[in-house]
């Protein structure tokens, strides 16, 4: 297509949200009118399904749950007055709590104010808070935030060492919808021990954000934690940033949570329109469908050209891949759906993998995120009449052109500034795009059966560890791996037994492995 036709196509397909100052450009996705026409019936159905979802249908049939993250941004559309009331009460509870922490009404036992937050959670209970903190936490936030989002012992040590001196004034947020996620539980137990080792009263530093009646909520009540905030069963982890999960840490950091909610609400209104061209989330879903033939054949590379949006791609990775990556569709057919998402930030990644995007295997489409405001304040020249921000723009659009010239498609999202409203709007834009796309491909976007399978397998491995340790202790003499596996009644798990023993041995735990490490079958194991 020549420059004039491209310019026309750009204008034909440009979406602009006046209130938010947000642009969406899908003109560099090379679909044609026939494709758009062919998608219209699917979109008509997707809009209907979304309407039913917002009205309180059980849109997550496997778990028998409603899907209500849209109500959080506009409680007036909650399906019952009780739900509306619950959302509003929870919001004022959050604001009130943040205010009390800021003014010292809620304070640690031995100091007048909390100075730091330690947030323990994983997946949807971490990625949103991490993204929003990086994007929006003010320079002089009332409380600094730190995260434990893994069960890596060395990672926990590094973090605890880093904040050791601040522990007496640290507020711990334990965030887990289920209240049973082992990674989070482990982090909490280690943090609890760290508090105890410094003679600090952990419950008087702790707050739980969790599902009603969960094990975590019960623990918080029994031990007298400072407070608890509910995670509603109708909000999924990956769409929970605008629930207590994201709003509690954001409010504590002094981020304008009403601004985030307002931006999301405005975007929700725009993406509720049952009109393909006037609905930015539908335009995204259309583009994704086109890129990957509705089968995820192309990966989504997300490149925000703004350091503060660095974690947006990681946030979207969970949102898109956990929602869409499904083996079965809603009719039970095996479909192996999904869209792989990766990305970091521009222009940094141009010096990493963009070489392959420009010239290598064409198995992706790009999403550029542009921010019009370079910085607050004056930019010095780095060349005659040229600033660093001009370079960033040049790199973004240079890459867009270079990849298009090589038949690689891209979407561009442009926001005026990184602020609470635009961040809320971005979250809402992608929530809806994922929901609409899920309808197009007929999958349940709101469950995650694959993750549950992984969790189950992990717990079986831990059971196996307990079993083999009992055998080793009872035997009192060295055993070959074969003998051990037989005695533990787990001959079919011999490779896993070997790996458990290798790990225990490497950490100086209860066992010693002897023999030729290059030949696992030659090893024998004894109690240390
Ligand atoms: O908030 P929870 O229940 O600890 O779950 C954390 C994460 O684990 C998952 O359930 C599975 O990885 C995610 O969907 C969720 O965001």
What key attributes describe this structure?
528 residues, alpha/beta, 6-stranded mixed β-sheet, 5-stranded parallel β-sheet, 14 strands, binds 6-O-phosphono-beta-D-fructofuranose, SIS_PGI_2, cytoplasm, Phosphoglucose_isomerase_CS
Outline the structure in words.
With 528 residues, this protein is an alpha/beta fold. Helix content is 47%, strand content 13%. It has helices at residues 3-13, 33-54, 69-73, 81-103, 127-136, 153-163, 182-197, 215-223, 244-252, 257-270, 280-292, 312-324, 354-359, 388-405, 420-441, 449-475, 481-487, 494-506; strands at 15-17, 22-25, 116-120, 144-148, 170-176, 206-211, 227-231, 299-304, 341-342, 364-371, 410-415, 479-480, 511-514, 524-527. The chain has a 6-stranded mixed β-sheet, with helices on both faces. Helix 10 (257-270) packs parallel to helix 15 and helix 11 crosses helix 15. It starts with a helix and ends with a strand. The mean pLDDT is 97. The site of 6-O-phosphono-beta-D-fructofuranose has 14 residues, from loops. GO terms for molecular function: glucose-6-phosphate isomerase activity. InterPro entries: G6P_Isomerase, Phosphoglucose_isomerase_CS, SIS_dom_sf, SIS_PGI_1, SIS_PGI_2. The active site is at 322 (proton donor), 351, 455. This is Glucose-6-phosphate isomerase. Pathway: Carbohydrate degradation; glycolysis; D-glyceraldehyde 3-phosphate and glycerone phosphate from D-glucose: step 2/4; Carbohydrate biosynthesis; gluconeogenesis.
